[in-house]
């Protein structure tokens, strides 16, 4: 059973309210953890991916002897302590050189883990051009049929979207889309490239968009996976009822995109409607003829 913690002071109360479930959750925080043995390449990759994820990221300074696929308790403890639902673990060994493990948690329990190996790497410093500002929301592109046809690649796509998506925003301006991260699935490899958008004159209102590579550039090899069951993943992806859009009744959209509405009205008594009093709108007909006959008879009687 889950232990219920009662706040003893206002500071603890605020901390518990900050971690409590909300209808609209805050941006997910990611942990960057180094293993007991890491190579220079793994350390540099962790630092540069940490720069892309800032300010929603926590970088561990000390090395931690962990084996995520064998024992997950340490990662779950770190997730609970730092209130982080994403993690990237880097290690290096003879059996699995230059190793990266992308993962996420649900209720501070491991949900998905995917292990990738670094085949080649080009740092941000190797591209001599302008860089993007820190905290820029990136535009994510996924190329390759494997992201749609293969279950492991579909789950990897969902994990990468969670990892790099940034803050949730309602509107975004065209000039704000200055960072593009592209993932390409080819056979057993995942190619990651970083670009900066350059807006140039096109002779019309819409500018001409060009992509300039700024890094980092990574070629990753697909290794091991540990994915959640379909039931657990469905429960983790469930949205509260308050956020679901309510269905609008009596509104249809035709094939041309025109919206049509249906209105239900009660029967209207047209004869009892109040109209403007005008001579041309006076009642005429049988009642008027009867009144004139009665008036003529009265005149004859007199």
Short description, anyone?
This protein has 302 residues and is of the alpha+beta class. It has helices at residues 10-19, 40-53, 73-82, 146-149, 151-164, 230-236, 286-301, and strands at residues 30-34, 57-63, 86-91, 99-106, 109-122, 139-143, 179-186, 189-200, 208-213, 217-226, 251-253, 259-261.
Explain this structure.
The structure is a single chain. With 302 residues, the protein is α+β, with helices and mostly antiparallel strands. It has a domain of 204 residues: 3-Layer(aba) Sandwich (Rossmann fold), CATH 3.40.50.10480. The protein is built from 7 helices and 12 strands. The strands form 2 sheets. Strands 1, 2, 3, 4, 5, 6, 7, 8, 9 and 10 form a 10-stranded mixed sheet that branches. A hairpin with a 5-residue loop joins strand 11 and strand 12. The longest helix is centred in the last third of the chain and has 16 residues. The chain starts with 9 loop residues before the first helix and ends with a helix. The model has no long low-confidence stretch (mean pLDDT 86).
